[in-house]
């Protein structure tokens, strides 16, 4: 294996992991505020189709990315209206949102099937991008890769270093006492849900503008569910989401390489490896009960209605 | 304008009854709007969606076939969620139940007696329960979050079934295509009224399981324990209940019922073990459990409603060329309306018009 | 239960006002059941474009209807039943897994004609049909053998069913007809359409040194990867030259249209007969090759010649001597493969660097 091949493999892993990371980091903030939105898959797929449509119509993939974000936010507002304003059951509402999102994306996307997509341009810095081994990895990736890393850092800083972040976490832990302290619980939660929608929409746009620049119905193919699982995997800690997303991506790509090398293991077992690996690693890291309890939002998925 | 929810002192019996009706009216209005916008005759479309599937005997049978697995899984999930355990891997338990139950006709095709089917159903239940026991064990033993483990195991189960149906369990006379032998008659869950349609006894099993579990939740100590531990683990522990045992109970029951649904589907509607045996029943049943308000009897009604939306979508596609995507969107809206209207049972909704300033805070 | 009852009650009220919906059924009606969405960019879309072709060709004489995204199993049985009951005269069921449901429904509806794609069972009112895609795969294999510099191709495969295995073998036969040492790497993605996974597999294969990509999955993602990495690829089901203007050499196009028109006409004039199996090939136009592009003239000439020879019956892609993967003889010198063996193919020919699950 030469240096170039190693770099290429790492780049492939990064591309596969980025949409998972984007969607998961958004959902992490949502869940930290005490809301469980199981509609990530639906918001992602809407982001994918609107991202593609935006880029296709305007010719600018940047506008496409914005369209993806916007679409994700709009769909998340629908969830917010039901789950927050009307205090409906969050699990059922999120699942219904996924059904709606998949149907809606199919309707929107009918005219875009089979059309050539537009790719978000990769970063290209003189000299730096051409460095051996790390050049492309550090300085030559698609913009959303950098966004995903920066976003994770920003969420980490926001949740643990800012007052607003502390407030958000306290709402997730106990919305009643937060309310008693005069905090507008629903407002925070709406904003968190919208942030989650934006991230899921962007993750979808990554699929249709970076990963595979085209629109195919259901192109998220279950990645929204993986993102949801990664939030749990991370025990609601942002840096662990990076770990989870890249672990999942690495095992996925690794098993493909193993297959291409002709290693005689059933392909079904190979395809199951990412899921098994995630379970095993989570078992290993979640044995410290105390740490897990501290980080789990205690009022997750419980509806909140301000009493008067 | 904004709206405010005001908690009712107690559940409104009136709205418990009206809310589904209100949801239906809203759905019809939304449907009228959507279909008109798409240039389809709205009344005919709604007729195809809601009436056609209920207007012929064979379609009612199909409704029962579609609803049976949804109900059976949702009944188990209702108890599981009530106890505050989050099994979202029913799809995987359904698949494993389908596999373990099928072991009998595939490995012992000569074993054709009266006991064949009961043994299969039992094995299906055990298989699903065993699959459910994995997240339970990991949760109680290693403190691993059950949402992740149960979900991830779904994919593992799907791939395992794929491997079996294309390899070891493949029908030797099947031209090397995937899928097992077709089960002999003694290994099939028979049809109820074969002259009218193809519904099999799975729906009866589903309704029976709903009634039994409802009885347990309502009248037995175990049901009380589920509710206490689900409401407050601390209180439960003071009451001498073990939350570890409850985790296992919840997962074994919900996994077992999902497994039973799996083998009932394989031995009933399908008739062989295929490389896929579920179009997502395990996930759809989560919606059913909550639509049914986590009540086993509610799951029966909710299961039929969800099944109707699938059949109705198909009927509308067929008779009016309404696309499958529109049907899916409409299904999502219907669920939203049902969920939203249920809010009225517990709350009064107050609309506040004009400049309302900051939402009322700090009054609690 | 209450909800259902209420729904029922309201429904009946609605039915009363609408007077029920009645639809006149005079025209001949052809119906299609699809496994995927009609816009999947692959298998299902090809069938649906063929359905539209039927409408263009036969115009006012017929009407068509379809159900898309129909899962195999009980859902497909219901869908086919619905078609048989709603006035369809002929029903095309376009996925292997619809085979048993098609047979079951056909038994209950002897007056309706059924055609099932890619299976092997028939009945008095059921035929089956398929296309000899392996003929196209042989041609693209031959092109690959000519233009590859590394002598290795990557094959992105979906599921190990005979059809896919047959395609892999045909491709390798074609490649080895010009380069006896040609090698093939296979990656199974366990999905028909997951663009992301297909792209991952394509990248992995390129990283391992293949300079030819071909696929038995639906999306154009591998073509995009080929274009980006500057290697060669072949379109699947559709012309994918928009995704790979320089990468695409040619494409195997699924062109079911003429077949459907022929069969529907037969059904209309009463010459349609059940119990038959049709396995058409390049000569019948059920599959066609997209224009040969982006290759040297001599390669193009060779591809065209091979295509002509296959059409005329002069060349059968599986002509001995061919050994199985383990080195044992499959076909002796000059012997050609029987259709039955091909349709149930569960072994690789010599030279495939992969293990089939068994």
TrEMBL record, chain A:
Membrane-crossing residue ranges in chain numbering: 6-26, 38-57, 63-84, 91-109, 143-160, 181-207, 219-236, 243-263, 269-285
UniProt main location, coarse: membrane
Entry-linked InterPro entries: ABC_transp_permease (IPR001851)
Compartments, as annotated in UniProt: Cell membrane
Key word Transmembrane helix present: yes
Topology with respect to the bilayer: Multi-pass membrane protein
Entry keyword annotation includes Transmembrane helix: yes
Record keywords: Cell membrane, Membrane, Transmembrane, Transmembrane helix
Protein name: ABC transporter permease
Source species: Pseudohoeflea coraliihabitans
Automatic annotation (TrEMBL), chain B:
Membrane topology: Multi-pass membrane protein
InterPro entries: ABC_transp_permease
Compartment(s): Cell membrane
Regions annotated as coiled coil: none
Keyword set, alphabetical order: Cell membrane, Membrane, Transmembrane, Transmembrane helix
Keyword Transmembrane among record annotations: yes
ATP-binding found in the keyword field: no
Transmembrane regions: 12-38, 58-81, 88-108, 114-138, 147-165, 199-217, 247-270, 282-308, 329-349
Superkingdom of source: Bacteria
Main location: membrane
PANTHER family tied to this protein: ABC TRANSPORTER, PERMEASE PROTEIN, GUANOSINE ABC TRANSPORTER PERMEASE PROTEIN NUPP
Protein name (database record): ABC transporter permease
Biological source species: Pseudohoeflea coraliihabitans
From TrEMBL, chain C:
Keyword annotations from UniProtKB, A to Z: Signal
Signal peptide: 1-24
Alphabetical list of CDD domains matching this protein: PBP1_BMP-like (cd19963)
Domain of life: Bacteria
InterPro entries recorded: ABC-Purine-Binding, PnrA-like
Residue ranges of domain ABC transporter substrate-binding protein PnrA-like in the record: 29-310
Protein name: BMP family ABC transporter substrate-binding protein
